[in-house]
Design a protein that fits this description.
Shape: rod-shaped
Number of strands: 0
Largest sheet: none
Radius of gyration: 24 Å
């Protein structure tokens, strides 16, 4: 883009404004936020419901 159409006070690179990824460089995030929520809900169910029942039987 021509410099004539860019504000001087505009940041040159928007990448500086983004938060760094918590993943290492080159790593892929295979879990979606919805998948994480489902797994967390299942873990809490296992800890709060299933495990106490198993402990009671044993």
């Amino acid at each position: 883009m021509s410099k004539a159409f860019v504000r001087e006070d505009a940041p040159e690179d928007d990448d500086e404004l983004l938060e760094p990824s918590p993943l290492p460089a080159g790593a892929r995030n295979y879990m979606t936020p919805a998948g994480h929520a489902r797994m967390k809900a299942e873990l809490l169910h296992l800890l709060d419901v299933e495990r106490p029942e198993v402990v009671r039987v044993v």
